[in-house]
Task: structure prediction
Amino acid sequence: MSSKIDTEVIVGGKVFTISGYESEEYLQKVATYLNGKFNEFNKEDGFRRLTLDYQNLLLQFNIADDYFKAKNQISLLEDELKGREDDLCNIKHELISTQIKLDNQDKSLNTLKADLAEKEKKIIRLETELKERERKENKEK
Result:
């Protein structure tokens, strides 16, 4: 297990020492996100007029909203990924089926080519026999 990391972050203009098992970069990223939310809300006159409790509640609701929207987006993307994986699986099965059909067609083609070659040999043999007979008949006459 990783050891705890202590790092100083600035949130809302105040310095805090945060401990956690995440990297320092990650903790700074979280602090940056929180500062962005603070700055976003502090631009609004109405927000600054609220009591500190209401400001914190509004920030917490907004962060929770971001969380649930992100979670929903992940769920949608996972569903889309599952659908694409199913499509890919179906395509692979179709490819295998088509490859089997192609292999069978190749075998049939090779069999037909072999039959054709045998029949061509038979035709040549019969033509040769016919010519031999014709020659014999012509000699006998």
In short: The first helix runs from residue 24 to 42. The beta strands are 5-11, 14-20.
